[in-house]
Amino acid sequence: MTETTGVTGVRLREMTDADVPAVMTLERTLFPLDAWSEGMLRGELAEPTRHYVVAASGDAVVGYAGLRFVPPEGDVQTMAVSEQVWGRGVGGALLTELLDQAARRGVTHMFLEVRSDNPRAQRLYERFGFVQIGVRRGYYNGADALVMRRVAGEGSHE
Ligand SMILES: CC(C)(COP(=O)(O)OP(=O)(O)OC[C@H]1O[C@@H](n2cnc3c(N)ncnc32)[C@H](O)[C@@H]1OP(=O)(O)O)[C@@H](O)C(=O)NCCC(=O)NCCS
C-alpha cells in the first residue's frame, strides 16, 4: 500500500476494527442523510473481497475509503474526508490507493454511485477518469445516484 499521501503529516494505512468508532464519527458527520450503521461497516471489514483504508494524521483519522473487488469488476464502496482538511489532496490520495489496489487485483472496470447533489465528489471522480453511465432514481435519501464507471486504460489517472 502507498503510505504517503503527498499531504504533510497524513498517511494511509489499512482500516482495523479499532478505527471503527472514529470512522463512524466522521461517517455520521459527512453523510448526515445516509450514514452507514456501525454494523454495516463492521460487516464490510469482515468481507475478504474488501480493502478499507484510513488517512491518519497522528492518532486522528481524517479520512477513509473502501474498495470491493470481484475481478474484473470493482466498486468504490465509500469515501470521505474530514471537512477541516478538504481540498488538500487527501481524497485524491485515498482514491489513488483504491485504484492501485484494484488494478493489482485484476480489476479493469471500476464502478461507483454518487449523490446527484454532490458536485464536489463528482468532480474528483471525473478527474480520475470516471464517466457517468447512468442514473438510479431515488437511490439515496432525497437524491438520485449517478452511476459512474472507470475503465482501465481509458481517461486520466493522476
Ligand atoms: C468528496 C471528498 C471525499 C473530497 O475530498 P478532498 O480531500 O477534499 O479531495 P481532494 O483535496 O483530493 O480534491 C478536492 C479538490 O481539492 C483540490 N486540491 C487537491 N489538492 C489540493 C492542494 N494541495 N491545494 C489546493 N487544492 C487542492 C483538487 O483539485 C480538487 O478540486 P476539484 O474538486 O475542483 O477537482 C470530500 O469532500 C468529502 O468527504 N465529502 C463528503 C463525503 C462525500 O461526499 N464522499 C463521497 C461520496 S460518493
TrEMBL record:
Decide whether keyword ATP-binding is in the record. no
Keyword field: Acyltransferase, Transferase
The entry lists its GO molecular-function terms as: N-acetyltransferase activity
Q: Keyword Acyltransferase on this protein? A: yes
Q: Where is the N-acetyltransferase domain?
A: 10-153
Q: Which domain of life is it from?
A: Bacteria
An example Pfam family from this entry, by short name, is: Acetyltransf_1
Task: Fetch the Gene3D superfamilies from UniProt.
Answer: 3.40.630.30
Entry protein name: Ribosomal-protein-alanine N-acetyltransferase
The organism encoding this protein is Nocardiopsis sinuspersici
Q: What is the lineage of its organism?
A: Bacteria, Bacillati, Actinomycetota, Actinomycetes, Streptosporangiales
